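Sorry to interrupt, but I need a hand with the structure work. Could you write out one complete protein record for me, on any chain you like? Just paste the record in under my message, thanks.

. . .
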Amino acid sequence: MDLNFHIYHALHDDTDKGWVWFLNPVFTARMTLKIRNPANGKSVFCEYRNIDEPFLTLYNERAHTRPINPEGTYHEGKYFEIRDRKNFENILVISGWYRNALGVPEFNTCSLEVRKPRSALWADLRAACQHPEPGVRVATRVAIIGTWLAVVGLLAALVEVLRDPLEQYVTHFALALSAVGLALVFAILCYFAGRGIKPRG
């Protein structure tokens, strides 16, 4: 779906977290979403967090944040209550890492495409490779490489096991070629899975 967001900076505590905050009844908290900027084609996978009263209270009491207080909310002391959830559906709290990746302006409005990916496993893998924390990105890519090496080793062992009963050279060559082809296809899949965010301009 296309949403026109008012951009807010994430809190300092959230700058190394792999999530963004907004409120939409279509999505479930903590699910991985794909966010795309149609103006430049850049996209990111990240975790979705619901804007709720505790988050508003924490966000608005910070000294250097621009308060989120759209029409339809009120506060008693430091507690904010959401009277109309629809008033928050155009507010996006996002860190500099994802703002730069998407090329969205600061403290402005921006139209973004937000959707739930078809494959949750693929989306989680892509989100980990685009995570703002370097340790998460490195660990995920090491895991991808390890999986690829395990598959290649399994294919090599399978060729060795099946080679003895077969006597024709052409059959041996075809079997080995198939194993190499499968390894290359899986390597390409791992490459696309392990890509980070697009270069930031």
Remarks:
- The radius of gyration is 23 Å.
- The chain is about 40% helix and 20% strand.
- The longest helix spans residues 134-163.
